[in-house]
Specification:
By secondary structure, the chain is α/β, with parallel strands linked by helices. Helix content is 32%, strand content 21%. A 7-stranded parallel sheet has the order 8-7-6-11-9-12-10. It has a 5-stranded mixed sheet with strand order 1-4-3-5-2, sandwiched between helices. It is elongated, with a radius of gyration of 20 Å.
Length: 247
C-alpha cells in the first residue's frame, strides 16, 4: 500500500476537484464517494472502483487491481468536500446508463429537484421499494455530487439512473409508458385513487413544481391530500409516499 503524505499529491488534487466541480467529474468520467459503508456497497454491486485513499485499515478485501493509498486523517479532511469527513475517500467510474438500460417497470422522474440531499434520499427510497429506474431532467441536482452520493447510502450503485431530455421522455411515452404527475390542479386526483404501478411518476421541486413541459406529457395528475394550512410536502417525502403506493 503506497503512502501519501501531501495534500498536493496528484491523487489528492484529483479527489478535491472531483468533489468540487461537476464539469471535472463529467470530463474525467469519475465521481467521489466517502466512507466504509459506501465502499462496501460499491464492492458488493460491482462498481468500478478506481482508487481508494484511507487513513484506517480496510476491514474487507477489494479486487486485487484496486489502487489503495494510505494517508493521515488531516489529508483526508483537507481534500474531502464534506463536513465530518470519514476515514475513507474513493473514486468510481461513472456508469453509462441510458434509457435502453431501463426495464419496463415503475420509473421515478425528478424534474428540477435541486437539493442533493433530496435527490439522494429519493434514490435510496426507490431502492428500498424495489424501484430501479430513476430519471432526472431539467435543472435537477447532480447525481454524482458527493452530498447526493452520501445521501443514497449506497443505492447509487444498484439503481439505473440517467438524465433525459424532453425528446427522450417523449420517446418513452410513445413506447407506451404512462406518465403520472404529482401536481395540484382541478383535474388532479388523490394518489390512492390511481394505479401507479408500472408508470412513470414525475416529481417536481417544492418551490416550482413540475415544469409545463413535463405536465404536458402527463396522462394524469395526482395529489397527496394534506391539511389546508400546510403549504407542501418535502419532495423526498412526497416521492416516498407515491413510490410506496406504486409497489
Amino acid at each position: 500500500m503506497e503512502k501519501i503524505t501531501s495534500r498536493r499529491n496528484p491523487l489528492c488534487v484529483h479527489i478535491k476537484k472531483l468533489g468540487a466541480d461537476r464539469g471535472y467529474r463529467e470530463k474525467s468520467g469519475e465521481f467521489l464517494c466517502d466512507g466504509l459503508k459506501l465502499l462496501s456497497e460499491a464492492e458488493k454491486f460491482g462498481a468500478e472502483i478506481i482508487s481508494v485513499l484511507t487513513s484506517s485499515h480496510l476491514p474487507f478485501p477489494l479486487p486485487v487491481d484496486t489502487k489503495v493509498y494510505h494517508t493521515e486523517s488531516s489529508v483526508i479532511n483537507s481534500v474531502s468536500p464534506l463536513k465530518n469527513a470519514q476515514s475513507v475517500l474513493f473514486t468510481c467510474k461513472i456508469p453509462k446508463n441510458d434509457s435502453k438500460s431501463f426495464s419496463e417497470s415503475t420509473t421515478v422522474l425528478l424534474d428540477g429537484v435541486q437539493d442533493p440531499g433530496n435527490v439522494g434520499t429519493i434514490i435510496r427510497t426507490a431502492s428500498a421499494f424495489g424501484i430501479k429506474n430513476i430519471v432526472l431532467t431539467g435543472n435537477s441536482a447532480d447525481v454524482y455530487n458527493p452530498k447526493t452520493v452520501r445521501a443514497t447510502m449506497g443505492a447509487i450503485f444498484s439503481q439505473s439512473i440517467c438524465y433525459m431530455s424532453a425528446r427522450e421522455l417523449c420517446s418513452l411515452k410513445e413506447n407506451g409508458m404512462k406518465f403520472i404527475g404529482a401536481a395540484l390542479g382541478e383535474k388532479s386526483r388523490a394518489f390512492d385513487e390511481v394505479n401507479l404501478k408500472d408508470t412513470l411518476i414525475a416529481i417536481g421541486s417544492e418551490g416550482k413544481g413540475l415544469s409545463a413541459e413535463i405536465l404536458e406529457l402527463c396522462d394524469e395528475r395526482v395529489v397527496i391530500p394534506i391539511l389546508p394550512d400546510c403549504d407542501s410536502l418535502n419532495a423526498a417525502v412526497a416521492a416516498a409516499i407515491l413510490m410506496w403506493s406504486a409497489k
